Amino acid sequence: MYRYDEFDQAIVDARVAEFRDQVARRLNNEISEEAFKPLRLMNGIYLQLHAYMLRVAIPYGTLDSRQLHMLAHIARRYDRGYGHFTTRQNIQYNWMKLEEMPDLLADLASVEMHAFQTSGNCIRNISSDQFAAAAADEIADPRPYAELLRQWSTLHPEFSFLPRKFKIAVTGSTIDRAAIQLHDIGLELVHGAEGEIGLKVLVGGGMGRTPLLAHVIREFLPVADYLSYMEAILRVYNRHGRRDNIYKARIKILVNDLGPAEFARQVEEEWAALKPLGLDPPPSELARIAAHFQPPVLDADAPVEIDLSNPEFANWVAVNTHPHKVPGHAIVTISLKAPGEIPGDASADQMDLIADLAKAHAQDEIRVTHAQNLVLPHVRRDALFTIWQALKGAGLATANLDRASDIISCPGLDYCTLANARSIPIAQKLAVRLAPQEADLGELKIKISGCINGCGHHHAGHIGILGVDRKGEENYQLLLGGSGAEDASLAKILGPGFDENGIVTAVEKVIGRYQSLRSGPGERFLDTYRRVGAEPFKEAVYG
Amino acid sequence: MPRLLTGNRVETGDVIWWTGDGWSLHLKDAIAVDDSGEALIAQFSPQERINDLALIDADPSDAGWRPRTTRERVRAVGPSVRPDFALPSIPVESI
Q1: TM segments (chain A) (predicted)?
Q2: Of A106, A300, A493, B76, which sees the most CB atoms within 10 A?
Q3: Residue-level pLDDT at A28
Q4: How many domains does chain A have?
């Protein structure tokens, strides 16, 4: 994986020193909160309901064991012993003290990490496929391209004050595990006519207040030119994005207002002017970055057959592992969704354990998924039992990947100042209630947000739940039919909302109706919904 | 309706409540500021030591203050999903 060069490290170290001075001046009242707030936000520090919250960037969701141990150390030393992995492949800490933040950021910098651009109207952490470099369905590893975007976008002077925040996802597979159709820019590695690698460019997707799917504005972009093309997209957006209205300021609104064809035309025009200026790095630079992502040397003769006589272990292997492109290996997803627990939360001890397992058994790599789980991408199948036993001892061996209890949930009103309703308790109740039947239900993605901003991706849920405020009390809307995968679609509201207990009952009724309607055990909830429409579910819920 | 003055301490982010002669981490120590609330905010704001100063509505009860909205009850107690961190203001289960 990528290692900082002297420039990367110098940038991060300088920012820590700068912020140390800013914090000292704020604590001494030499600068006001009004002046300080944008400075702390630029370093990922929010003031939430109970304390400061720090969001740490995990570029394209990739960590090594040294970094995950550091995240565990931060949880222990500066927080209350845990962290929360987010739908942006980042980690958040909920109990931060401003006075300790400079030391914390220095600790992070010591392992080549930071919290830049995890807030504010800038290009946020670049996200990617958690199975990168391991999946058999991949054209190429998307992370070198994501890394170059990270370097390009870090402290980019022209794009540090965009009309609104900006999110980019990159994938190397047609199996979309990175939700590229729901990002401001989605990039998919594709083959050109001669077999060369290029990028399909999608623009204008997003969730939140105005959910929209992205449009393809270029079917094939040579990789040698993609940085200048990104620059052209951002320039058009920066020029015409709606700075006058925060609710209409995302690029999706601009693309929708102009129309994808006209937006693409303006980008091409801008690009024609930009491209000759030499913004794109020489091929040697992309090659230098790509060299950091050389696939690990794995033993293709490792045994494929393993002892599956333990039924609990066999079930975990069946549900939580995927085929690796190298025979005899597997991709392991570690569920952070044990029913009744808080989705995405991991204790410091759990992080340390996973880091140790990655070091011993997974080529020292860990990935964070946008579904708030962790992945060990390169594991010999004959090590799976050892890993499973270790995970089981730490409460991490839940076999529920992509099933009903593998629920995405934002922090909601339990932590977040923006939230209107709590998300986590709904996720906990649903997970406990649905877990006993989830094997029968198959793939079922439930996603819960505590407000319209949609951090819990409710619009991309097969079943989505949106918490709203009704005269100071929590109320929950039920949405059906969304997907963040390659078959992306936006979930639609079924009808009037419910209270906390009512929404759980409503979801159970929806699932009950699905079981009676499905054409067979292989038909997913989403497929049944698409086949029969909303009416049968509306009838089941509202009578 | 009684109104309480609250905010977050700059150094730590802790939720704090105005007690009449200082600030407390505990809702039970809060006093109703009612009509003097705006004046207190005007007094404390320029000092820049408390962030997000706000007046919230609360009802008196035998167990102490009960903030009117779910948001303020969560804020007073702590995350409802982490009762191990709950402050002794109102029972977590009654949020």
Answers
A1: none
A2: B76
A3: 96
A4: 4
